[in-house]
Design a protein that fits this description.
Helices cover 71% and strands 1% of the residues. The chain starts with 11 loop residues before the first helix and ends with a helix. By secondary structure, it is mainly α. The mean pLDDT is 83. Helix 2 runs parallel beside helix 13, helix 7 (127-137) packs parallel to helix 16 (287-318) and helix 10 runs antiparallel to helix 11. It is built from 17 helices and two strands. It has a two-stranded antiparallel ribbon with strand order 1-2. The protein has helices at 12-17, 22-37, 46-52, 56-69, 77-105, 115-122, 127-137, 140-144, 147-152, 156-165, 172-191, 193-199, 202-215, 220-252, 275-282, 287-318, 321-326, and strands at 109-110, 113-114.
Amino acid sequence: MSNTQQKAILPLYDLMNKVPGGTMVIPLILGSIIGTFGPGFLEMGSFTTALFKTSSTALIAILIFATGMQITLRSSGPVLAHTGIILLFKTIIPGIIIVALAMFTQSSEILGVSILAIITIACNSNGGIWLAVAGKYGDHRDQGAYIASAVNDGPFFVMLFLGVSGLASIPLTLIMAAVIPLILGMIVGNLDPKWTDLMRPTGAIVIPFFAFSLGTGINLNAIVTGGMTGMVLGLILTVVTGAMVYFGYKVILRRGNMSGMGFAAGTTAGNSIITPEIVAQADPSMLPFVQTATAQVAAAVLVSAIVAPLLAAYVMKRQGGIKANNE
């Protein structure tokens, strides 16, 4: 009997997966607990410190590289069209609106919430949630549009919007440095699909570890103070950005009663929890916002993972899409 077939003494992995984004959020919270109450453990040195405290940047770089390998040039036209619609209405247009609003108000905060948190929550999407909904209700065009999540899942667009707008002082070299691993992964993956297959499980392996490492730098007080705001913000942006993708599905792609699928894109990816810290590394003026923004993003990940698929299914059912699709 293989290890995967043996009955677990304590089904830790299954328990984590019952929480939306659990493999990211639970290690993040555990890391925060250790970082708040037992920081000495993290300073032991050697492999303990390297894995549990300082590993996040390197592990995320590996994940971005592996993600690039999943983006192939063999995608069909309809798949690329659906991918473009998601990127346009879930990432590019929301990012432009948020940046314009910030420049108009000339403030780094809107209603007490940092621009860093708002744009991080709004401008990426959870590929796992999208695949779950697309796999159940959609077709190959919807499933293939997962490419959009592979492209916007990470700090690149956030750094691009903040840097180009002048809201943050981010050198062009650092913006490029954020996307080079993705581009290199695309090149390698398209040259040799065996590498694509080899690196496909990378996310499942590295996410819990870099989440824990990231969590060690978050004080629990920030989670308490930022969590509720993050939930409200996550709920609002899930509905708003999901509705924008719904519009693209209905008006541009003309998907009819299946247009509700667009609401499934209104999510916040678990990987985005690291984005505030990466932005602050590029522009230290953002450091005061990092802890609270990270807690708000983590809360938004949970809320969007629950609300977006339910909203997508509800709209498709109301419009007859699910029934028609099943028939």
